[in-house]
Amino acid sequence: MANSKRVLFQKRRLRVRNKLRKVNAGRVRLSVHRSNKNISVQLIDDVNGVTLASASTLEKDLGVIGKNNVDAAAKVGTAIAERAKKAGVEEAYFDRGGFLYHGSIKALADAARDGGLKI
Questions:
Q1: Residues 6+ away with beta carbon under 8 Å from 69
Q2: Which Gene Ontology molecular-function terms are recorded (predicted)?
Q3: What is the domain extent for residue 10?
Q4: What is the mean pLDDT of the chain?
C-alpha cells in the first residue's frame, strides 16, 4: 500500500520530535500546529507536562481570527514571545511537527526570535 499524505506527515513529525528529544537539554518546547484556517503555538514544559503559554489566530485580541497566512503567523509569533517573557522562559526549542519550515511556520519562528525568544 502506498504511503498516504497523513502517514508521511506522521513519519516526519515523529522524526523531528525524536531528534529534538536528543538535544533538548531541559529547555521547553515551542510546538506549532497549522490547519487550513488557523495556526496555534504552545510553550510546553515536557519535564512537568505543563503548558506554560499559548497563542493562536483564534484569539480576538490578535485581530487575525480565521487567517492562516504569513502576517497572521508573525502576529502569533510576536504574541508567544511576549507571553514567554511573562512566564519566565527565555529559550526554547522549535518543534515544527510534521510541517515544512517555510511560509507561515518560518514567519512564526522569525517573529518569535525578533520578540526576544531564543530558538
A1: 104
A2: 5S rRNA binding; structural constituent of ribosome
A3: 5-114
A4: 90
Query: What pLDDT sits at residue 115?
Result: 93
Per-position DSSP letters for 59-96, written without gaps between them: -GGGT-TT--SHHHHHHHHHHHHHHHHHHT--BEEEE-
pLDDT digits (tens, 9 = 90+) for 37-79: 999 999 999 888 899 999 999 998 888 877 778 999 999 999 9
CATH of the domain at 41: 3.30.420.100
Diameter of the chain by CA atoms? Answer: 49
Q: Which of 45, 49, 48 is nearest to 92 (CA)?
A: 45
3-state SS assignment for residue 6: helix
State pTM to two decimals.
0.86
Is residue 119 one of the residues assigned to a domain? no
